[in-house]
Amino acid sequence: MKTTFTSRTFLALLLVGSVAATVSSCKPHVMCGDTTSKQPTATSKRYKKALAERDSLCSLTKQQKMQLDGLTKDYDNLKATSGNTVANLSGDLRNKQQELSQQDKLLRDKEARLRDLERIINRQDSVMQALTNTVKNALLGFNADELTVYMKDGKVYVSMSDKLLFKSGVADVEDKGKEALKKLAEVLNKSNDVSIAIEGHTDNVPIKTTSYKDNWDLSAARATNVVRLLTDQYGMDPRRLTAAGRGEFSPVADNSTPEGKAKNRRTEIVLSPKLDELMKVLSYK
Questions:
Q1: 150 Cβ contact list (under 8 Å, min separation 6)
Q2: CA 61, 67, 68, 74: dihedral to nearest 10 degrees?
Q3: Contact 124, 272 (CB under 8 A)
Q4: For 25, which of 58, 91, 114, 151 is 20 to 30 Å away at the CA?
Q5: d(Cα 252, Cα 152) in Å, to the nearest integer?
């Protein structure tokens, strides 16, 4: 009877120990990232290894979450910045398009003005070339050393030598010169779209007489007498005419030779196209 009691008692104690061990092993393990709880003591090596792996993974996950949060924040900032950038670029694009539209309109206006200018200049050149031919034909009876007709810079020049118009040192027009001026006036009276300038020129030989103080004075008097002759005797409109004395300061040849001096002693009748239409185009904005 004693042996039976001992065996039963041992079995009961063994069962109680097993239950206690089972209850002890069911205690909650340390939560991920919990550094305040006491680490388990009655655990297997396998459990501790798994727990260590779990904690390592927990730390890695935490780091990756922090990185993800940072990347998300950077993305949000970039998205906001990109939105502002796109908005700014859109505004700049609209402004550039407006500027381009304005410049395109300005370019079209300038091209239209250039076409108008080209048309006017071509027409004036055509008129002046026709006038040159008409004047040459009207003055065919005079020698080349008496007068020349040529076109330069869109103007027609009728250059009459002193040999044709004046005696030395005086401003009265000679008869043969009057004949040339009369023929010229007949042509110019039919060409109202040109302005006429009469320019007196001398050589560089000084002159001082009771009538003329110097070459300025003589050249101006000669130009003025030609203008009076054209208006008083040949019916030209004085509003079309201008008289100017250039003296010795606009030579066409070397004054060191007699031939050069003779070429410089001249009266030039300069025919210019009226620029009213041209000035309207130039003044247009």
A1: 132, 156, 157, 159
A2: 170
A3: no
A4: 58
A5: 14
Tally the domains of the chain.
1
Q: State the CATH number of the domain containing residue 258.
A: 3.30.1330.60
Q: Which residues of 129-157 are buried (b: 16+ CB within 10 A; e: fewer)?
A: eebbebbbebbeebeeebbbbebeeebbb
Domain assignment present for 220: yes
| Strand order from edge to edge, sheet including 241-247 | 147-152, 155-161, 266-273, 194-201, 241-247
- Asked whether residue 199 is domain-assigned, the answer is yes
What does the pLDDT look like over 93-109, one tens digit per residue?
788 888 888 888 888 88
What is the residue range of 219's domain? 123-283
Q: What is the 3-state secondary structure (H, E, C) of 26-77?
A: CCCCCCCCCCCCCCCCCCCHHHHHHHHHHHHHHHHHHHHHHHHHHHHHHHHH
Rounded distance between C-alpha atoms, residue 142 and residue 180, angstroms: 8
> 52-94 pLDDT, tens per residue?
777 788 888 888 888 888 888 877 787 777 777 777 777 777 8
The amino acid present at 215, given as its one-letter code, is: N
pTM score: 0.63
Q: 179 in a domain, yes or no?
A: yes
| Tokens read off for 205 | 């030989």
DSSP secondary-structure letter at 238? G
| 3-state SS class at 265 | coil
> Does 13 fall in a domain?
no
